[in-house]
TrEMBL record, chains A, B:
GO molecular function, one term: DNA binding
Protein name in the entry: Recombination protein RecR
Biological process per Gene Ontology, one example term: DNA repair
Xref: InterPro entries: DNA_Rcmb_RecR (IPR000093), Rcmb_RecR (IPR023627), Rcmb_RecR_Znf (IPR015967), TOPRIM_dom (IPR006171), TOPRIM_RecR (IPR034137)
Domain Toprim: 81-180
Zinc finger (C4-type) residue numbers: 58-73
Family membership noted in the UniProt record: Belongs to the RecR family.
Function: May play a role in DNA repair. It seems to be involved in an RecBC-independent recombinational process of DNA repair. It may act with RecF and RecO.
Annotated source species: Algoriphagus hitonicola
Length: 206, 206
């Protein structure tokens, strides 16, 4: 595209660096900002800069936090003996929304991905092991729940973690893979269906 | 969503004010910026602020420009007797890409939309009339081509402009509506097909 102005071109270039935003969308957003009051753009720029410069991470679970320790890690009403391992903040929000989990979290900050050059060292795995070993929790850890995506990378990370935690004397579990609630059998892919049969739940003994 | 940090919440609120971006996408973009180097966010913020504060508009055609007069208005190789009226900068880019137009442009800055409270006064219509009346062009204007979207708002604006320009002694035309090149007849909607029959092109006499 031949932009009539260097200012627009620079803005479009920067906006289109964001994931999932191409040049056309970037131009649409830039023209939108130009139609709005100047204060709108200033508020956006300031919010982004402040977020990037001042953001803090909880020193225990590594989730984004406003203080040194996040509200979940500080809470005495949450069960510190169960730690749910997730990829990032969005997964914490998603699990919190279910109201089905009252333990604590550990945010890895990503998953193992050789293609993107992310190895175990780039993730917060050592500090997870330290939480178990050194009793950094208020209570001794009983169980680690691996709640990672059902992708190649997520599974690789789960496998790696299960191996690393094998001799720690804690139960390691992973969230169930199966057909989604409301899903119909005939439209479920074979791998998912196969797994949901293999990991079937026994009604009679429970 | 219960964000664990006010900084993230502010950023997500500001990003999701952009058109077509919801809270979930905004959060994804914010987390992406947090994973990138700080310089990335600073460059984005600076580009947006600079664009909004320093942007200039061509005093003749009102397109975005780096100087007082845009390169198209300044050019002597373009035919100043034909003015193509468009909604915004994107339409200028789109028409320039066709390589089918060698006249000049006039950017209205929007279309008449009573729902959004945009009347003719909000658009650069008076200055279009002045371009014809006062001979602000290098040459007298012969033809005005209305190249507005084939929507209710675009058609309303075209109709309004045609009325305003009726006694100015210039030819007023509008770009053809019809089936797109490569389009199949049976999949074209009735209104478009009807219009393309009504405004059929006579092979024999041309």
């Amino acid at each position: 595209m031949n932009f009539p102005s260097k200012l627009i071109e620079d803005a479009v270039t920067e906006i289109s660096r964001l994931p999932g935003i191409g040049k056309k969308t970037a131009l649409r957003l830039a023209l939108h900002l130009l139609k709005q009051h100047e204060a709108h753009t200033e508020a956006l720029s300031l919010a982004l800069t402040r977020m990037r410069q001042e953001i803090k991470y909880c020193k225990i679970c590594h989730n984004i936090a406003d203080e040194e320790e996040c509200s979940i890690c500080k809470s005495h009403r949450r069960d510190g003996s169960i730690i749910c391992v997730v990829e990032d903040m969005r997964d914490v929000l998603a699990i919190e929304n279910t109201n089905q989990f009252n333990g604590k979290y550990h945010v890895l900050g990503g998953v193992i991905s050789p293609i993107q050059g992310i190895g175990p060292e780039e993730l917060k795995i050592d500090s997870l092991v330290a939480r178990i070993d050194l009793g950094m929790n208020s209570e001794p850890v009983r169980e680690i729940i691996l709640a990672l995506s059902a992708t190649m990378e997520g599974d690789t990370t789960s496998f790696y973690l299960a191996k690393r935690l094998k001799d720690k004397g804690v139960k390691v579990s992973t969230i169930a893979r199966g057909i989604p609630v409301g899903g119909e059998l005939e439209f479920t892919d074979e791998v998912t269906l196969g797994r949901s049969i293999m990991t079937r739940i026994n009604y009679s003994s429970e």
